[in-house]
Design brief:
This protein is mostly helical. The chain contains 9 helices and no strands. It starts with a helix and ends in a 5-residue tail after the last helix.
Length: about 220
């Protein structure tokens, strides 16, 4: 028994020595791990709270759109973008609010959410859609140069054809027929292998516009 006690005491002494040497590090790591766990849980809670609040505001934008209430849609979307710009709901709210403003004939207020989405939307695809819609609103508002500026960056696929088609429309409005022909031709070419009915229709429309100004030269 005495031998066991001596062995046990020796082990305890070794543990004590190790702890005196490494105890602070172990405690620091343990505290850091605990804080990381609490922080992660807190971040998840915060993100969940943010998502729920953003979703509620987006529902308000949808309701306002259904009621064709431009002011209510504008205010709800503005609050959503201001407080929850990092959520997908902000992107969608910007596009929806802009449509409500445009449908109400308020092109000035339609520009604001589209300009934000064109530059800062979280989804690159939505940024391109926002640029196309912003260019359309600017074209309708006869801000031709500003509209063309939104159509300069290249896009892929069918969206590229829509960009080119709108560019042609703007150039025709400016009396730049030769440049418009190039744009319409680009739209037609981009849709030359189109399969979807909608794409084929867009190609026919672009071709008709091209023919109307003298065809490709």
């Amino acid at each position: 028994m005495a031998a066991f006690d001596l062995e046990e005491q020796e082990q305890l002494s070794q543990i004590k020595g190790w702890w005196e040497e490494n105890g602070k590090l172990v405690t620091t790591l343990a505290v850091a791990a605990a804080l990381a766990s609490v922080g992660w849980q807190g971040w998840n809670w915060y993100r969940g709270k943010q998502g729920a609040e953003a979703s509620a505001l987006y529902t308000s934008v949808q309701q306002a759109a259904g009621e064709k209430n431009a002011q209510k849609a504008r205010e709800a979307a503005g609050l959503l973008i201001d407080k929850y710009s990092g959520t997908p709901y902000a992107d969608l709210a910007a596009l929806l609010s802009a449509k409500v403003q445009s449908d109400a004939g308020d092109l000035k207020n339609a520009r604001v959410p589209l300009a934000w989405a064109a530059e800062k939307a979280n989804d690159p695809a939505l940024r391109n859609i926002a640029r196309l819609r912003l260019a359309t609103v600017l074209f309708d508002d006869k801000a031709y140069d500003e509209a063309l500026a939104q159509l300069q960056a290249p896009t892929d696929g069918e969206l590229a054809a829509r960009f080119a088609d709108l560019k042609g429309d703007i150039l025709v409005a400016q009396g730049k027929q030769a440049e418009a022909r190039v744009a319409y031709k680009a739209a037609v070419d981009a849709l030359s292998t189109a399969v979807k009915a909608e794409s084929s229709t867009l190609r026919e429309i672009a071709q008709a516009k091209l023919d109307a100004i003298g065809g490709a030269q």
